[in-house]
Write a structure and sequence with these properties.
heterodimer; A: Spore Coat Polysaccharide Biosynthesis Protein SpsA, Chain A; 10 helices; about 15% strand; globular; B: alpha/beta; Spore Coat Polysaccharide Biosynthesis Protein SpsA, Chain A; 9-stranded mixed beta sheet; about 35% helix; isomerase (chain B); RGP (chain B)
């Protein structure tokens, strides 16, 4: 049932928001060393990147971004959004991406989790969005479809997106984190689950993987908070991007999985200080979710680019007037589609 | 990790919950459950030969109904209760006077969690039923109301109150609940994976509901838990809980109630004979292909504001759309109506239900 995904079909994309990547890269070395890496340096970062030897990688910095993208776009590739540049210039079929403050986690038996391998497994095996399997992922070892699961739905659909989780510092919003500063996620849930069709899910960008060929254009740097900062709870860009991905996948009959693998997230930041910045993001979700729940894409939209184009127009029409942030997001989405068509899908890599 | 300063203990609910157990052989399994079940009232539904005596282990407080009792109490309406199939258990739901029901099969035992501790399945079900569900938006950290969990970034605050939980669907270690074809292909597969999660099944999503380890709020959803016409004289078996689950989920979605699945685990000890199962399930396997699109596309009118109204409406649609698949569905649709009539008779709102119970028919 599973696809054979080769190592050379994969890019590991890391957005570098900190300059010293030494311990990050060394901790991930056993999992990363087989693959080609794309490291995109946050254009706002002043210091030089420190990257250990022994990796097959390409590094992109502000001048590269400026040269490839030009200044005519509304898209700002700074902060967490710098990784999207990596998605754009990659020429591989699959991308695995994680935040630079994450380390390999340990499972319930104490073994180090190879998050890369698990993401590959998730993408290589089908997803089952049309009917919930109570034993979770039926393509896992030692599991199957349960009694009552229709046979015609057992071949599943292609999994286009794999959303992993995090131990230790959980991805809570700032108010929750401020309220429960001591709470850490210590529960290792040994399951991979397909998110059902039409169900929306807050996709955290911390630890993801996707089929770039099929849904690449739907991962986009569009919703930028006015006070967006360098902590995850000061952003909403990945949540917005994830909603787009889910809507596009639902429309195109593709699957989204969540659950394993886990990564270990380092403690950092002060949630209370971030409250002011992220509060507007929290308010925005009240409009964002109903919007995405009601978006309907036309039958003629058969590619991710088509879908993103439609969603962008819907954003402009329905949300644009509510908040300038949405109007900017819509413009950024349309710019992204153009960029993807000109840069993202050409056959040669825009090496500078 | 630091535990919260005060964890309020889970209420026992011993006067608000009945345990319904269908059985055809014996209730020896109750010995293992004694520490957890003893405070509760049991409703035993004895299937098969009514002249046989089922021994209930000493000390349990119970009422027992065999086929003769069912016939006496329901009269002609007894036709809706299956014979020679664990579907007969739903009679127990109907005669119960409690707010919550837990139903369990007689080959299900106490499981152990990864730390080796015995799992009090009933306590977990109660926790699941007493905390809200979140069907409108999937939380990636699963049940946000559990100790040590919460809603993730991006989860709208307006949806964080959740909705009342109507159903808690538990799982099984050891013998997994597979259909016959899967059992035949993988006779040795055992479920050894303890997945430490409870999740709400999102609105609009159907699932296969297994009746082996199931709890529900009878007041919220009871009348939808009809386990259909199965077993003796029927063309199908082992789809009782499936049928109830699809009807229940559609109605829960319509009424804004939640369905959870996941913990607790029980230990399922007995693998039923796959050849016998195949014979029972055979028609179900291909009828299912029509049933699923039917349930996926069902819409209930806005004026269906009670479970009974939803269920009657569903029965009409079953007759209309599935009657042509097989005559069985016409019979089933009629039985669905009979079930609701019987339910309402035994559970009148306001009147003293005890009088009617004793009067029989």
């Amino acid at each position: 049932m599973s696809l054979a995904i080769k190592d050379d079909e994969i890019d590991v994309v890391i957005g570098a928001l900190r300059s010293d990547l030494t311990s990050f890269m060394n901790e991930w070395r056993p999992m990363f060393s087989r693959f080609h890496l794309i490291i995109v340096k946050d254009p706002d970062l002043k210091e030089e990147l420190k990257i250990p030897e022994g990796f097959n990688l390409d590094v992109y910095k502000k001048p590269d971004i400026d040269q490839v993208v030009g200044s005519s776009t509304a898209i700002i590739f700074s902060g967490y959004s710098c990784r999207y540049f990596g998605y754009l210039v990659s020429r591989k079929k699959y991308i695995i991406s994680m935040d630079d403050d994450c380390l390999p986690a340990r499972d319930n038996k104490g073994f180090l989790v190879d998050a890369v391998a698990q993401h590959i497994t998730n993408l290589a095996t089908p997803a089952t969005p049309f009917f919930f399997n109570t034993l979770y992922d039926p393509f896992s070892e030692g599991v199957d479809f349960v009694r009552g699961y229709p046979f015609s739905l057992r071949s599943g659909v292609k999994c286009a997106f794999s959303c992993g989780l995090w131990l230790n510092l959980a991805d809570h919003d700032a108010p929750t984190q401020a309220l429960k500063p001591g709470q850490r996620n210590s529960r290792y849930v040994d399951a991979v689950i397909t998110v059902p069709v039409r169900a929306l899910v807050p996709v955290s960008g911390i630890n993801i993987a996707f089929d770039r060929e099929v849904v690449g254009p739907a991962l986009l740097p569009a919703l930028r908070l006015a006070g967006e900062g360098k902590f995850r709870w000061e952003t909403m860009e990945d949540i917005w991007s994830g909603m787009c991905v889910k809507v596009v996948c639902d429309h195109l009959g593709l699957g989204v999985k969540t659950g394993l693998p886990y990564v270990w997230r380092n403690d950092r930041g002060d949630a209370i200080a971030s409250l002011k910045k992220e509060w507007e993001g929290v308010k925005l979700m009240e409009e964002v979710v109903p919007f995405f729940q009601s978006v309907r894409l036309p039958r003629e939209a058969t590619t991710a680019e088509d879908c993103v184009f439609e969603v962008a127009n819907a954003v402009k029409e329905q949300l644009g007037s509510r908040d300038p942030m949405f109007a900017r997001a819509a413009t950024a989405m349309l710019d992204w589609v153009k960029l993807w068509k000109s840069v993202g899908s050409s056959s040669s890599s825009p090496r500078v | 990790m630091a535990q919260p300063a005060t964890i309020s203990p889970t209420p026992l609910l011993k006067d608000e919950l009945d345990i319904v157990i269908p059985t055809i052989r014996n209730l020896d399994f109750l010995e293992m459950w004694r520490p957890f079940f003893l405070p509760y009232h049991l409703i035993i539904v004895q299937d098969g030969d009514p002249s046989k005596t089922i021994k209930v282990p000493a000390g349990f407080d119970y009422e027992l109904y065999n086929r003769n009792d069912i016939n006496k109490i329901l009269g002609p309406k007894a036709s809706c209760i299956s014979f020679k199939d664990s579907a007969c258990r739903c009679f127990g739901y109907m005669v119960s006077k409690k707010k919550y029901i837990y139903t369990i099969d007689d080959d299900c035992f106490v499981a152990k969690d990864p730390s080796g501790k015995d799992i009090n399945a009933l306590e977990q079900h109660i926790k699941n039923l007493l905390s809200p569900s979140t069907p409108f938006f999937f939380n990636t950290l699963y049940d946000p109301y559990r100790a040590g969990a919460d809603f993730v970034r991006g989860y709208p605050f307006s949806l964080r109150e959740g909705v009342p939980t109507a159903v808690s669907h538990g799982l099984w270690l050891n013998i997994p609940d597979y259909d016959a074809p899967t059992q035949l292909v993988k006779p040795l597969e055992r479920n050894t994976r303890y997945v430490d999660a409870i999740m709400t099944i999102t609105k609009g999503t159907l699932f296969p509901m297994c009746g082996m380890n199931l709890a529900f709020n009878r007041e919220l959803i009871g009348p939808a838990m009809y386990f259909g016409l199965m077993g003796d004289g029927q063309p199908i078996g082992r789809y009782d809980d499936m049928w109830a689950g699809w009807c229940t989920k559609v109605i829960c979605d319509h009424l804004g109630l939640g369905v959870k699945s996941g913990l607790p685990y029980i230990w399922h000890s007995k693998a039923s004979n796959p050849f016998v199962n195949l014979k029972k399930e055979y028609k179900g396997i291909y009828w299912q292909e029509e049933l699923i699109p039917f349930f996926q596309s069902v819409t209930l009118p806005k004026d269906c504001s009670t479970v009974q109204k939803c269920y009657i409406e569903l029965s009409k649609q079953v007759k209309e759309k599935l009657g042509k698949v097989d005559e069985y569905f016409n019979k089933l649709a009629d039985a669905m109506v009979t079930w609701i009539e019987a339910w309402d008779e035994l559970n009148p709102t306001g009147a003293k239900s005890a009088e009617l119970f004793n009067a029989g028919k």
